[in-house]
Specification:
Strand order of the largest sheet: 1-4-3-2
Radius of gyration: 24 Å
Shape: elongated
Helix content: 10-25%
Distance between the termini: 33 Å
Number of strands: 11
Strand content: 25-35%
Length: 209
């Protein structure tokens, strides 16, 4: 939090010096500590930035025919869809899903997901996710978590954070370590080859001991 102090400095002094901002107020010149934006730079954030950089390099290297194909694909998604943004989003998601390289061609068909049911339960220090079957060929499951203050706290789709991307083998529960408390659990299916994904489905809220 920025701190403010009155100071008997030159009355016309304004601007920044080091970590301090000088400004005018009725009482004279005021000093405030310079607020610095927070950038935790977690491993997950670094990995996502690397995926976006790889997507950007791949877009720059595309030949004109492929660029035209992506523009046509974006037009089919509706008003406002931009070819570069669509390409980058699918590329980053394909890499997250474990694709060995950025997909250079747009998807040839819609992706409707996978016929896998998911059940969730709380455990000491973890969320347990049990699947009804294994993922199909070329499909993986992204599991996401959202810590909550209480069991009746509203969830927000934008606040889910990826906890694990896995090709579900179909045997035994999947363990997602997390802090104790109430946790909302979500999931979506990803197609590795294209980066296509289903909408995020909320699986429920559990108590982690």
């Amino acid at each position: 939090m920025a701190k403010t102090n009155a100071s008997f400095l030159a009355p016309g002094l304004r601007g920044k010096l080091g970590g301090v901002v000088f400004s005018r107020a009725d009482c004279g010149t005021v000093l405030r500590s310079l607020a610095v934006g927070r950038d935790p730079c977690t491993p997950a954030q670094q990995a996502q930035r690397d995926r976006i950089r790889r997507a950007g390099r791949a877009w720059r290297d595309l030949d004109p025919e492929r660029v035209a194909a992506w523009r046509s694909y974006a037009l089919g998604l509706g008003p406002g869809a931009q070819a570069h943004a669509v390409f980058s989003g699918l590329a980053a998601r394909a890499l997250l899903a474990g694709a060995p390289a950025v997909p250079l061609d747009p998807p040839a068909a819609p992706f409707l997901g996978d016929s896998v049911g998911l059940a969730v339960a709380g455990a000491p220090g973890a969320v347990l996710v049990t699947a009804s079957a294994a993922n199909g060929a070329g499909v993986v499951t992204e599991l996401l978590l959202q810590p909550l203050v209480s069991a009746n706290r509203r969830t927000y789709l934008s606040r889910y954070r990826s906890a694990l991307v896995v090709a579900i083998p179909g045997a035994g529960p999947i363990t997602l370590p997390t802090h104790p408390g109430w946790v909302a659990v979500g999931a979506r299916f990803l197609r590795q080859a294209t980066g296509q994904a289903t909408e995020l489905a909320e699986l429920g809220i559990v108590r982690v001991g």
